[in-house]
Amino acid sequence: MQVGTQSGLLEGLTLAIQRQPEAYVLRSWLGLAAGEISFADYYKIASERLQLSYLTIDTTGACDLSCSDMCYYNPAIDTRLGLVSEKVLTRAIDEADTHLDLQTMVLAGKEPFLNARRVFALLRHCGSLEHRSFTVGVVTNGRLLNRHWDGLQDAARNHCLDFLDISIDSGFPSQHDRIRGQTGTFDLAFAAACEAHARLSGVRISVTSILRQDNPEGILELLRNASPSLRCFHVFPIQPPPFVTTQPLEAEFVVAFLANLKRLLKGELAGAGVEITVTLPGLYLSEAVGSSLFEWADLEENHQGACFARKEVEGNSIVYACLVLPEQASRLARITYDGAYLAHLHFLQAPQPQAYAVGYIQEESIVSLYRKAIGVGNHFHQIVNSRAHHECSGRSCWQSCFGGWVVAENAFLNGQTLTAQPRLCPKEKETPH
Ligand code: SF4
Question: Which of 106, 158, 189, 257 shows its CA 20 to 30 Å from the CA of 172?
Answer without folding.
Answer: 106
